[in-house]
């Protein structure tokens, strides 16, 4: 028989750990973005465009799980700041391909570098089995809404 009180407590504890871990994971990038008046969506855009140069706007929208309207402002700001360059696709002049400029790549590396370092420290401290377990849990959570890129799991 399942002890629901114990299960609820376990789940609440997991939710709290997830919240605090996410706060720690995003603290440094958030502080750097705040100096520019930007938020996490700007970092997400830089990250995904940096991971796949030539990404189309529609693919970026799908990866982020946002609407075109929600992406428009942050993407425009990043382009105006010279961090993202949009070019017209050769095969379809209506499609724009996105890439990071050198300044965009430098900012993305600074934003994500702290996160990579944190993950590396934690994975190194707890070993490969813990990392594999974490990846399995995160992949299952990410697939819950169907928008996760399976290449990232």
Automatic annotation (TrEMBL):
The protein, known as: MarR family transcriptional regulator
Regions annotated as coiled coil: none
One Pfam family this sequence matches: MarR_2
Organism placement in taxonomy: Bacteria, Pseudomonadati, Pseudomonadota, Betaproteobacteria, Neisseriales
Source organism (scientific name): Chitiniphilus purpureus
HTH marR-type domain mapped to chain residues: 8-143
